[in-house]
Design goal:
58% of the residues lie in helices and 12% in strands. The protein is an alpha/beta fold. Strands 2-3-1-4-5 form a five-stranded parallel beta sheet, sandwiched between helices. Bound molecules: adenosine monophosphate.
Length: 190
């Protein structure tokens, strides 16, 4: 079973991915983590990606598809994966479908954790107000969060549209409590 999980920062994607990994024995594949690992190892890919990532731009589709394709060949991906942060463009979605087809695999579910962006911003504001300044994360500001949400909306909308057109998109209410969201995911996957 191969799943794509779409959701903006603070939507609970990490928590729900951990639940799905545990429950279904899936492997979580984050292209962002793979790129950061390449940077840490100082590989040619890492050197190429570092400047792009610092600007918050997207690494090119061919490079992303190539690293995902290599990773998908490995034994720990054969039971199924959760794609996280990928696909980020329509071309990546099409490339992923073509790649999986050559492996006799497919995307079984593309799931969107649907959230209310105003509520997420209100959440981060209240978290900041309750946290002493010395303990705050550098990126826990309403301004940075708003920007990350905007980038997510701009980048992801066309990809969601691609899966909607194919009749594969499932939408889950990401504003429900954690257990309820997990339950909704389980209902879709079972
Ligand atoms: P993330 O950890 O998913 O937020 O990704 C961090 C950065 O890595 C992004 O801002 C992009 O520069 C790059 N990146 C991660 N995944 C992709 C992808 N699927 N396509 C293009 N760039 C990506």
């Amino acid at each position: 079973m191969n799943i794509i999980l779409f959701g903006p920062p603070l939507a609970g994607k990490g928590t729900q991915s951990a639940f799905l990994v545990e429950k279904y024995g899936l492997m979580q594949l984050s292209t962002g983590d793979m790129l950061r690992a390449a940077i840490a190892r100082g590989t040619p890919l890492g050197k190429q990606a570092a400047a792009i990532m610092e600007r918050g731009d997207l690494v090119d589709d061919a490079t992303i598809l190539s690293i995902v394709g290599d990773r998908m060949q490995q034994a720990d991906c054969q039971n199924g994966v959760i794609f996280d942060g990928f696909p980020r463009t329509r071309a990546q979605g099409q490339g992923l479908d073509a790649m999986l087809a050559t492996m006799g695999k497919q995307i079984d579910y593309a799931i969107q954790l649907d959230v209310d962006f105003d509520v997420l911003i209100a959440r981060v504001k209240s978290r900041i107000a309750q946290t002493p300044q010395s303990e705050r994360r550098a990126d826990d500001t309403p301004e940075i969060l708003e920007n990350r949400l905007k980038v997510y909306q701009q980048q992801t909308a066309p990809v969601l549209e691609y899966y909607k057109e194919k009749g594969q998109l499932k939408v889950v209410d990401g504003m429900a409590d954690i257990a309820q969201v997990s339950q909704s995911l389980q209902t879709i996957l079972s």
